[in-house]
Design brief:
Elements: H1 9-21, H2 23-34, E1 47-50, E2 56-60, E3 67-68, H3 78-88, H4 100-113, H5 123-131, H6 139-155, H7 158-168, E4 175-176, H8 178-186, H9 195-203, H10 217-233, H11 239-247, H12 261-270, E5 276-278, H13 283-300, E6 305-312, E7 318-322, H14 350-359, E8 368-371, E9 390-393, H15 394-399, H16 403-413, H17 415-424, H18 450-457, H19 487-498, E10 512-517, E11 523-529, E12 533-540, H20 552-567, H21 591-594, H22 604-607, E13 612-615, E14 621-622, E15 634-639, E16 646-649, E17 652-653, E18 662-665, E19 671-678, E20 684-691
Helix pairs in contact: 1-4, 1-6, 2-6, 3-9, 3-10, 5-6, 5-7, 9-10, 9-11, 10-11, 13-20, 14-16, 14-19
Length: about 700
């Protein structure tokens, strides 16, 4: 601490020294006159978001414009405190807030050298100064620091005093506090500092602007090395560790974490009063996938963006939410959250069509479908390759994403019914303005959000139940029953999609996935899952402009497989539920399931009435004594239709084909059940009941 030579210096400095020596006898009177210390600066912190493990995702400047983050001494690398005390305050643990020996030494140095070669301020005095409004360095201010230091020592433990210093020490510009500085200069939490990094952070607060590494790297290095030299002289460091610390580079720019920026922007905008957000994300994975999106889009084109969603299937936690390829890239509209933007889903809705058909007993993965020209009113769908493939199994049709079989199945399921089912499961689909619900919705003629699509796909590895997504750990959603399909049909879709041909960078059979490409090459999508995770990827231009060659399989699928590689894990398949109808080909199926027959599903000329379930009725609650451990069978009755009949419950057949309109089924427990019957012509009827 340099001071100017002044005739009044000796007298004033002696007063400071005497005041410090008198502190043990005068603390009470000083506290009465000055009042308690002002701790309001500790309450003015940045708004920030943490990941599931407490790691920082992103922070916003505090209301006073400074970056200030809370920090505890236990969260700081111990070597930082070793260096700090060796450089600033060797007797910190023993003095009462003022080090009389240090003050006397500073006075003697001034008297003999004309300036103080070592400072007299303790860490407690520096903490006291940081709590006060900034002002000139006068002797009156020094006296006040001494008195405030005594107050702090009387009120707080040594550890708490250190935490005040750690929270408020200046580190250049608008960065305050050790945690903010460690993140800004080294991109890491202070618990993982190297010796050289810790030494630099010890040196900066003494002259934060003059020693800023990005403005004056030579001064920063010299100041850091002085800290290392003093610690070496005090035997706080060994010679080899000191040598390695001096060899460490000086950071030349700040690198403050800015993860999940699109999401946190919206959170702060919606809840400006909130200061801390605890999110379900994994900061490591979030950072890795943001880098993946940025790198891939840099190769694809300057105006392309990407979005990635990762869901933990076990609990619905969103582990990563990448809203764009580069938050700061204006040409990519980086500030927009494209994971929540309404875009065309392309062919990614096809698995839900097949799941509905399987669940309703209309088809099986080995059912033969007719891939030939067809017209539905004025609409005539065509395949992506403009070719026709004749009779194909439902499995092959979905794996190769044929449009004509999907339209054929949707015509049987009913587009309005499918839309209602998807919406009830949480997939908020938007129809174009002034349009009706038609078959085109199955091929992408509807608006959807990537995060909703990914959530719906997560139903397949969860026995048909879509999870309640959790992004904020502080505000978990209320659990809801979001059943999208039955367990048997969910597994059948998973089994089919696991056999889809992978992109060039992927291995076959590792994950179940489906791609999609919107009309005009505006959106490329790929959504996949294994037993543990579901991941959705979107690529396109935020301005919705077409991009020739933007095809889901070629653009989005490679990103999907890279994302799964970064998530890690064994890519275990979805477990097979019991009572799934097995078949190697269509010949192994009951006759009504071997082919999906086009045209009306009744034979009124022969039997006069379509097939209909007479008992149980739709929505019935049936007491079979299941809650008491009884095993009463449920009677099933149908009317009309053409024999033989096949009954299924939750997609699993009951025995085989029968000429009778009646059947009996023994449930394995209470709950909801979907009962279906199919006649010889493929006509069917279904009801949902609750068994108790």
């Amino acid at each position: 601490m340099k001071v100017q030579r002044d005739p009044r210096f000796l007298k004033a400095f002696v007063a400071v020294l005497v005041g410090g020596l008198a502190l043990p006898w005068s603390v009470g009177e000083i506290a009465r006159r000055l009042g308690p210390p002002d701790l309001s600066a500790l309450q003015t912190a940045s708004t920030f978001a943490l990941d599931r493990n407490g790691a920082l995702l992103r922070a916003f400047a505090a209301p006073d414009g400074r970056w200030r983050l809370p920090v505890k001494a236990d969260d700081v690398d111990p070597k930082f405190f070793v260096l700090l005390k060796a450089y600033e305050d060797k007797r910190f643990e023993r003095h009462p807030g003022v080090d009389a020996l240090a003050l006397a030494r500073a006075l003697w140095q001034y008297a003999t050298h004309g300036r103080a070669l070592s400072g007299g301020s303790t860490l407690t005095m520096q903490a006291a100064r940081l709590l006060e409004p900034r002002g000139p360095h006068t002797f009156a201010a020094k006296l006040k620091q001494i008195y405030r230091a005594a107050q702090l020592e009387a009120r707080f433990s040594k550890k708490e005093i250190l935490e005040i210093y750690l929270a408020l020490a200046p580190y250049g510009g608008n960065v305050e506090g050790l945690r903010a500085a460690s993140l800004a200069w080294f991109g890491k939490e202070p618990r993982r500092l190297t010796t050289g990094e810790a030494a630099l952070l010890v040196a900066l607060p003494q002259a934060p602007e003059a020693r800023r590494p990005d403005h004056a790297p030579a001064r920063a290095r010299a100041a850091r090395d002085r800290v290392i030299d003093r610690a070496l002289a005090a035997h706080a460091l060994g010679a080899e560790e000191a040598r390695r610390a001096r060899a460490e580079p000086i950071p030349l720019r700040q690198s403050f974490p800015n993860l999940a920026a699109q999401v946190t922007d919206q959170l702060v905008k919606t809840h400006p009063e909130r200061r801390v957000w605890r999110l379900a994300y994994d900061a490591r994975l979030q950072s890795s996938l943001e880098e993946l999106a940025r790198r891939k889009c840099a190769r694809l084109g300057e105006k392309l963006a990407a979005a990635i969603i990762v869901i933990d299937n076990a609990n619905g936690h969103v582990l990563a939410h990448v809203g764009g390829a580069d938050y700061f890239a204006k040409e990519r509209a980086g500030a927009l959250d494209m994971a929540r933007a309404l875009r065309s889903p392309g062919s990614t809705l096809k698995p839900f069509i097949y799941a509905a058909a399987f669940s309703d007993g209309l088809a099986h993965p080995e059912t033969l479908l007719d891939d030939s020209p067809a017209r539905y009113g004025l609409w005539r769908p065509v395949n992506f390759d403009d070719a026709f493939h004749g009779a194909v199994t439902a499995r092959k049709a979905l794996q190769t994403s044929l449009n004509l079989p999907a339209a054929q199945l949707l015509n049987e399921v009913g587009p309005a019914r499918l839309l209602a089912r998807l919406r009830s499961a949480g997939l908020d689909l938007k129809l174009p303005k002034d349009s009706d619900v038609g078959l085109a919705i199955g091929l992408g003629g509807v608006g959807a959000r990537l995060i909703d699509l990914t959530r719906a796909y997560a139903a397949f590895p969860r026995e048909g139940v879509a999870p309640d997504l959790v992004e904020s750990l502080d505000d978990p959603p209320k659990p809801e029953n979001r059943r999208l399909t039955e367990p048997a049909s969910a597994w059948q879709i998973a089994d089919i999609l696991r056999g889809a041909p992978p992109p060039d960078n992927g291995a076959a059979g590792r994950i179940a996935f489906k791609t999609g490409t919107s009309y005009g090459y505006r959106d490329a999508l790929a959504i996949g899952f294994d037993r543990a995770h579901t991941i959705g990827v979107w690529v396109g231009r935020p301005d919705n402009a077409p991009v020739p060659g933007l095809i889901g399989r070629q653009v989005a699928a490679p990103i999907l497989f890279d994302a799964f590689a970064r998530v890690g894990g064994a890519n275990d398949p979805v477990p097979r539920p019991a009572n799934v109808l097995e078949a190697r080909n269509s010949a192994d199926l009951p006759p009504p399931l071997r082919h999906l027959r086009r045209g009306p599903k009744t034979i009124a000329a022969t039997f006069g009435h379509p097939i209909r379930i007479f008992y149980p009725p739709e929505g019935a609650r049936i007491d079979l004594g299941l809650s008491h451990g009884e095993t009463t069978e449920l009677s099933l009755k149908a009317q009309g239709g053409a024999p033989p009949f096949v009954w299924t419950v939750n997609g699993a057949p009951i025995d085989g084909a029968s000429p009778r309109h009646e059947a009996r089924w023994k449930p394995d427990g209470a709950g909801f059940a979907r009962v279906s019957v199919i006649d010889a012509n493929g006509a069917s009827d279904s009801v949902n009941v609750r068994l108790e």
